[in-house]
Amino acid sequence: MKDITETVTCPLSESAREAFKHVSTATLTTQLFGRGLRNSHLEGLRALNPANQRMVGEAFTLRSIPAREDIDVLEIFQDYDHPQRKAVESVPAGSVLVVDSRGKTRAASLGHILATRLKTRGAAGIVTDGTVRDAEGFENLDLPTLAKGAAASTNLAIHHVVDMQVPIGCAEVAVYPGDIIVGDRDGVVCVPRHLAEEVAAEALEQEKLEAFILEKIEAGNPLRGTYPPDQNTMQEYRAQGEV
Amino acid sequence: MKDITETVTCPLSESAREAFKHVSTATLTTQLFGRGLRNSHLEGLRALNPANQRMVGEAFTLRSIPAREDIDVLEIFQDYDHPQRKAVESVPAGSVLVVDSRGKTRAASLGHILATRLKTRGAAGIVTDGTVRDAEGFENLDLPTLAKGAAASTNLAIHHVVDMQVPIGCAEVAVYPGDIIVGDRDGVVCVPRHLAEEVAAEALEQEKLEAFILEKIEAGNPLRGTYPPDQNTMQEYRAQGEV
Amino acid sequence: MKDITETVTCPLSESAREAFKHVSTATLTTQLFGRGLRNSHLEGLRALNPANQRMVGEAFTLRSIPAREDIDVLEIFQDYDHPQRKAVESVPAGSVLVVDSRGKTRAASLGHILATRLKTRGAAGIVTDGTVRDAEGFENLDLPTLAKGAAASTNLAIHHVVDMQVPIGCAEVAVYPGDIIVGDRDGVVCVPRHLAEEVAAEALEQEKLEAFILEKIEAGNPLRGTYPPDQNTMQEYRAQGEV
Amino acid sequence: MKDITETVTCPLSESAREAFKHVSTATLTTQLFGRGLRNSHLEGLRALNPANQRMVGEAFTLRSIPAREDIDVLEIFQDYDHPQRKAVESVPAGSVLVVDSRGKTRAASLGHILATRLKTRGAAGIVTDGTVRDAEGFENLDLPTLAKGAAASTNLAIHHVVDMQVPIGCAEVAVYPGDIIVGDRDGVVCVPRHLAEEVAAEALEQEKLEAFILEKIEAGNPLRGTYPPDQNTMQEYRAQGEV
Amino acid sequence: MKDITETVTCPLSESAREAFKHVSTATLTTQLFGRGLRNSHLEGLRALNPANQRMVGEAFTLRSIPAREDIDVLEIFQDYDHPQRKAVESVPAGSVLVVDSRGKTRAASLGHILATRLKTRGAAGIVTDGTVRDAEGFENLDLPTLAKGAAASTNLAIHHVVDMQVPIGCAEVAVYPGDIIVGDRDGVVCVPRHLAEEVAAEALEQEKLEAFILEKIEAGNPLRGTYPPDQNTMQEYRAQGEV
Amino acid sequence: MKDITETVTCPLSESAREAFKHVSTATLTTQLFGRGLRNSHLEGLRALNPANQRMVGEAFTLRSIPAREDIDVLEIFQDYDHPQRKAVESVPAGSVLVVDSRGKTRAASLGHILATRLKTRGAAGIVTDGTVRDAEGFENLDLPTLAKGAAASTNLAIHHVVDMQVPIGCAEVAVYPGDIIVGDRDGVVCVPRHLAEEVAAEALEQEKLEAFILEKIEAGNPLRGTYPPDQNTMQEYRAQGEV
Q1: Disulfide-capable partner of F226 in D232, E46, F87, F221 (CB 3.0 to 4.6 Å)?
Q2: Measured between beta carbons, which residues in chain C are less than 8 angstroms from residue B147?
Q3: Between A and B, how many residue pairs show a Cβ–Cβ distance under 8 A?
Q4: What chain A residue is nearest to F77 in terms of C-alpha separation?
């Protein structure tokens, strides 16, 4: 059986990346749903810096397990090759750091200094199904960050970062390295890499049509005939497009 | 046994509706608590459009069950008589659409286009114990919407809307069609229809008194004698009212 | 065995109080973690008045148990010596009222009028692992309040306040009367009283160093050598301090 | 769009019913999974009478909403036409009463007397995503009953039974009246009615093959070649069947 | 306002105690429900020694808060006056130790040695909304114990026992010292002390009637006329009693 | 910094393995607690085959992430090198398969056929923080299996097994390959490999002492002087040991 998580080797096209910057995560879930994927939205995450909500990038994954008191001590970070630190220095420009925090929120997955380093390295964003700390710093950082919220505790209190660039679960969604991560006001969606090009294109089409439909609904049209559009509405839509 | 959920047939009086627009949900729970109803607040819901938090209207209910993969496919919405769409076209002006989403948040109960249609039809608001999608659209929509938050996924991923205008549970509170739904910063309260007129009147009275008490507390008065008011304070309150 | 919860009898020094006003709760958890305390952050609380998030004060504790329908009736508050009311009138200026609400959010721990009284009495803040009501009033009150959110229901619906100034649990953290409670954007941290002076001093030092590190990271330095600082960076830091 | 929940009008064949009595719920989920249904198991239910775990029957559904203190009083049951009582008198022989208790366990969905009446009427079993009371009585009752456990409280404390024979959710699985409900040690599975005949037949086939595989594994065969069976193993299986 | 939790000073009558030994917790919740108490069942607890499920006794309460690493060390138990140990030595014969474990199950509330001491001192049972350890020992101990289950961890890992004989919450039910605690297969019910005598008497009556009803239902009678009993059935019941 | 998870290379001594077979998991948590490890018990797991509860073996770990509909199809198992199948064929005799199922119970981690293969290969047990299916088969299998319970669904419904012999979290406890896994009636405890020899020895000592204490408590001795033992009791204990 061909492994579909490894079938794509070329980088994401610029047109697809551009499309992902404009379509909503809601539209993407509909596109993926139509292809049989019912679980692509990472539930329960919200932007910590509302001014920077649009996020697009390839997933760079980080995996954590529960901490153990004799291993996870402050001195652990004296080692600059600690997986958490190494990951921060490894995320390529344009990628999103996606952290599997096992959905646990009692201690932060990371803080403002590491996020700042990610920013200066050109990362496209941060996603965790846990929390971050130094929330005030995040609010003023120009790097989209989506998490379950903020928590003051240092990550060692409950987290031990163990490896990176392996398939992970985040908010009970599978995330494979290289998948396309998109974030906006509704949260985060993970688009499997092998579907990214076609989903990007069709999502853009869907949004154009929905903008047209929304205008008609705002103008007082009933759902019948308009949403979803019947043949007449589609004809009108296509005619308008031709102008 | 007389069914008290069906004893009221006349519409809500204008004075009661006006009162509900001014009293807080906190006050309403106290009024209902005094009548033996300890569970009238729909826990855990928050306004998605903070600028439009005051909401008053009769409940128009919508019920969902879990989705099933062979039934809940995108084509289902080609049918304009699908219960979700039919409900949107049926909510009377002045009513609030209350959706029983079984408290599940992984997929949205509805999105921005349907909400816009509700708005143009004159609905008074939307309440769900699930989530909505297109959160950005909701923020700019002049229609009070209270939910557990936002989620990108299309509702078919987990919800199947099955019927409308039946008694439902929403956030583990019973909601009967026609009950009065009030929303503000503290969330949503459901006032049983047969109690609405008297609760509206007494809530208004309670709030006047509490405004007087708050002023005294702000002026440095101790709780003793003031909150709750003793005879002296009540005398002072009544005297002031007479001016 | 000496009871370390009762070994400190003198008031918190002014310098320590001042330090707590400037250091973050994130820094405090690191300091406490280094002393073996991995669970000092009260998870899941957020400021209801974002403009007033910095909070420092000694813990004044209040304990609640579940309500019982024949005890917890509205008339209970006619007694001005009811523990909840008595507590509000007992919190010393500069202290934080910390309420053990058993983590239950369905009814409010307290409302705006009591909070206003706390404000006029000089309290430093309110913390509950439950909810508050009259959220709009709290937003405009100059008194830091951290809770799980807002809920309209009167506290008697689920809470019975039973005693005060006893050791409690709040958000699954032990809080002893007199412990130092600090709040900011990341939530609330409880600093055991006997550690307060030394933690305050060292936290201040840590933050100075981290501000220096952040500047270097913002300037593009890699983590290696900078975070944590190696000998060179420390030398540079100390040299700068000497200027 | 044809409504597949209403396409089957003839009764379940005897051969299918017999097959369901012998195949495991585990096998049924695999059959349904192969047809695209990933969510047919009602999670978290266990048999209250372990001696009577095998259960097969058509779903007879009962729906509850949260109780309200002024409606749900003991006197309500004076009405023999109360939906809960009416349902008990309506379940056809051979059917399983499936109760939507919204997953809430604090009060029982029903007790031993009603269960006894169901037994004498020939019902095939009881399923609820809540609890039952009089657990001791259930243990000695010859009627398969699967629930989340036992709870002493009368159902009126949190439940109001509102209607029957409508589509419901139970343990977050859609259950339509007439679906085939099968229960055993692993819990409960709901087989959509329109798939019942073919699933029954193929499940029986699958179990025969798996019994053969299990024997080989018990005999020390490795998974490779055996589970799943390769061509050789299948040939051997078929040859054995021909004897 | 008279404090109804302190109005009863005489011991429970022998007839009431005897009645509580024979009525089920299900019956008791119905009696309390009829008096306005909807929340008397301690949800989610089960007997760890199924052979000894019937439990009756006055509540002797024990309260815990979260542990703190610098206080809750193994040496703490060198102090024989540690509240947990003192409580075990203070429970009067015939009383039930009820432990407020905040509903947390990750570490045991107590183990087999302390339970054995309770047994030799004549205690009537143990109830905790947490867990116990040495489950095997409990299974063979002739002392009814109801808990959420078993957990190996020593209680100091998450619990700090802080005082005894104060009002507590257990499984979100208020328990006042002296309340009557009854346990059976359905779990645990707390009967407020001031209602104990009348509830005991009426519960016994209710059970006699229900035994009569059950017999009729088992004999094939329909619910109508039988459950609840109409005038005819009541007449028959009374006649039978007179024999 | 030396990695303490990799410092032990020799196999567990026979005396230690023997000791682990006789000491309880409760005793082990106390030993680990005394060494600063407060979180070694895997909460919430129970034996599916009560007759085979004693389990000891080195951890062989298996990691799962959430399933994705286009990857996790039944055909995946045609590949005998699928990680789940490969793991089953790789567990050394005497080892325990520990599965990280992310604590999710909706679908089984594995079923009876794979467990039977593990048994024939000499595995010492199975642990998962999820569920298993074919519970009836497990009850009759002579292989200790501890899980959160049973669920009928095939694992592909929510699980994708991704790799083995990496550090994992199981029930929010860190498990490193080679750690000693011990199971009994109270659940499962993970003993870090580098502490195993000394913990085994001291646990055995502790249990001898506790057996002596229990006898005295059963004989009616008070806690004071006995539990914990004072000097007199210790002298008596040692004297007895010398006989």
Answers
A1: F221
A2: none
A3: 93
A4: A1
pLDDT beneath 50: ranges in chain D: none
Nearby residues of D48 by Cβ (< 8 Å), 6 or more positions away: D132, D135, D138, D139, D145, D146, D147, D150
- In angstroms, rounded to a whole number, what is the distance separating the alpha carbons of residues A26 and B115? 15
Question: What is the SS3 string spanning chain B?
Answer: CCCCCCCCCCCCCHHHHHHHHHCCHHHHHHHHHHCCCCCCEECCCEECCHHHCCEEEEEEEEEEEECCCCCCCHHHHHCCCCHHHHHHCCCCCCEEEEEECCCCCCCEEECHHHHHHHHHCCCCEEEECCEECCHHHHHCCCCCEEECCECCCCHHHCEEEEEECCCEEECCEEECCCCEEEEECCEEEEECHHHHHHHHHHHHHHHHHHHHHHHHHHCCCCCCCCCCCCHHHHHHHHHHHHC
Over the stretch D5-50, which tens digit does the pLDDT of each residue have?
777 778 999 999 999 999 999 999 999 999 999 999 999 999 998 7
Q: How far is D37 from chain E (nearest CA, A)?
A: 32
pLDDT at F242 over 90: no
In this predicted structure, what is the pLDDT of residue C111?
97
Whether F86 has a pLDDT exceeding 90, the answer reads yes
Query: What pLDDT score was predicted for residue E243?
Result: 59
Interface ipTM: 0.95
CB contact under 8 A, D220 and F156: no
Cβ(B170)–Cβ(B99) below 8 Å:
yes
Domain B41-191 belongs to what architecture? 3-Layer(bba) Sandwich (3.50)
Average pLDDT over residues E221-226: 97
Q: What residue ranges of chain A have pLDDT lower than 50?
A: none
d(CA E98, CA E182): 11
Identify the bridge partners of residue E180 per DSSP, sorted by sequence position.
Answer: E58, E191
Q: Which residue has tokens 């992970």?
A: A168
Per the structure block, which two tokens stand in for D199?
A: 């699933």
Selected residue of E39, E70, E163 to mutate for chain C interface (largest C Cβ count, 10 A): E70
Those of residues 208-227 in F touching chain E at CB distance below 8 A are: 210, 213-214, 217-218, 220, 222-225, 227
Closest CA to B134 of C105, F189, A29: A29
The answer for E51, left when phi > 0, alpha when psi is -120 to 50, beta otherwise, is: alpha
> Low-confidence residues of chain C, pLDDT below 50?
none
Tell me the nearest-neighbour CA distance from D125 into chain B, angstroms.
Answer: 22
Q: From the CA of F53, how many Å to the nearest CA of chain D?
A: 19
For residue E86, give the chain F residue with the closest CA: F223
Q: Report CB contact under 8 Å: B152, A33.
A: no
Alpha carbon dihedral B45, B48, B50, B56, in 10-degree steps, equals: -60
Residue D74 pLDDT: 94
**Identity of residue E225:** G
The span from the CA of B176 to the CA of B61, in Å, is 7
Cβ <8 Å between B167 and D162: yes
In angstroms, what separates the C-alpha of C36 from chain E's closest C-alpha? Answer: 7
The vertex-D28 CA angle with D22 and D31, nearest 5°, equals 130
CA dist D153 and D109 (Å) reads 9
pLDDT (0 to 100) of residue E2: 63
Structure tokens at B207: 């709030």
Cross-chain residue pair B186–C80, CB shorter than 8 Å = no
Q: Which two tokens stand for residue D109?
A: 């969905």
Query: Residue B50: its pLDDT value, please?
Result: 78
Q: F238: Cβ–Cβ under 8 A, 6 or more apart, which residues? A: none
Tokens representing E210?
A: 């229900």
CA distance B114 to B98: 14
- Of the pLDDT bands very low, low, confident and very high (cuts 50, 70, 90), residue B240 is confident
D53: Cβ–Cβ under 8 A, 6 or more apart, which residues?
D47, D144, D183, D184, D185
Of how many residues is chain E composed? 243
